[in-house]
Amino acid sequence: SGPASTSLSHHLLLLTMSTPDEAELCYPHLGNSSCRRIVRSHSVSVLLHIILSSISVLTVTLNLLVIISISHFRKLHTPTNFLLLSLAVSDFSVGFVWVFLILLIDGCWFLGAGWCVFNTVFCYVATSASVGTVVLISVDRYVAVCDPMHYQTKVTKNRAKICIVLCWAGSTLFHCLRKIYNIENSGEFDSCTGECVIYVHPVSRIMNIVLSFIIPISIIVVLYVRVFMVAVSQAQAMRSHVTVVTLQSSLNVNRSELKAARALGVVVVVFLMCLTPFYLVLLTTGLGVKSASSYIFVVGLVFFNSLLNPVIYVFLYPWFRKCVKCVFSLQILKSGSSEANIL
């Protein structure tokens, strides 16, 4: 892929691109120094705008409902739900990246080199923060299922909040340092006016794959395999009607946690399915494998995951459905509504 790598949104732009025989200039008054605009029929252009706009609106709206629900209702203020809140903020942010994609739909970047770098860094920070949050969710479920007697003391609201802040701060610092050259020299690698290209050092790319993919995914898989093993052993114990008092009390503690682990397990599995292909393509690209169609598909999966998460909540969490009803019926505006037993 060479030293220069376009932003996530620019890769996904390839999905909407055609290869016309004739193309207009993004900046006609600049002549040959301007990038070329993608020319397509009016009907195709309208269809693409409708599809991308719909995805953006749905992603932003659904994740905003999650953010409002968990933030407003005190009964939902648990360490696990705070982690879901962090994931929703990340997905909400990704929803705005679709807006930039709509601006790029004709192959021209009109917002300047500075906004190009900001858009790229913002997208990577949101993605890394979501990876870190899923790691924290896995740790939360591991402690809840494998050490239920000490869960309340080990996993507290304050510790969850601190971990979330560190996750976002670490992601922001890491990607700002990765893109520090682009931040200081924005637009240097654009081959024409109207392009959005950033420089990615090979070492930086390897660090990103290791720190944002290999290590986090390894932790997630190991922890959830352990949770799955404990869940299986618990199920076998319940089927064999174990009546030992200590084990029975442990089973009572674990039952609700296991149910939560299964629900969050769906979120984790879908997340891994959507994110893993992207990093695998980045890895193969670094080894010299080039495929625009691969970027189209995997970046689309990463973006689409942000829409899938709140949809999963609709089916798996009764409290989220109740919250949505409260929001749309405006009951959330009534005094004392935050104390409602939404569970």
Automatic annotation (TrEMBL):
Localization in the cell: Cell membrane
Membrane topology label: Multi-pass membrane protein
Alphabetized Pfam families for the sequence: 7tm_1
One GO CC term, this protein: plasma membrane
Residue intervals of the G-protein coupled receptors family 1 profile domain: 62-313
Membrane-spanning intervals of the chain: 47-70, 82-105, 117-139, 209-232, 263-282, 294-316
Keywords: Cell membrane, G-protein coupled receptor, Membrane, Receptor, Transducer, Transmembrane, Transmembrane helix
Keyword Membrane listed: yes
Family membership noted in the UniProt record: Belongs to the G-protein coupled receptor 1 family.
Protein name: G-protein coupled receptors family 1 profile domain-containing protein
Organism: Gouania willdenowi (Blunt-snouted clingfish)
